[in-house]
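Slides due. Your pick:
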Amino acid sequence: MFKISLRLVSDDGDPAQVSAATGMVADHAVRAGDRSIKTGKLYKFSSWSASVGPKSGFERPEEAFEELVSWGLPTAYTFRKLKSESNWEISLVVVQEFRNTDNPMEKGVSLNTQVIEWIAAAGAGLEIDQYVYY
């Protein structure tokens, strides 16, 4: 199972600025200095994230990667501008859970050239977290 998101993190950035610049609504956003509803503690950094593909997860990542590419290179360049002008760090986060290592559908992550181009245009890093459950 996969879950993929685009995540931005900043010491003091305003998540509303990310949404305004990209026209995208965050699935999760917090601003440094705001108080956590769960813990009551102040957030030490700002973050903004949006799911790519179904939030509930999916078997293969290709459709989510197609969705990311469909956002277009102009959107990727907008993220790059936010990075350079407002000090946001950007990552495409791919989480993969292996539940059946004998299943050929649960093998690795492959990125096509369009996905790599979008990530590069956005100035984003790529984080791949893989968890094996037996």
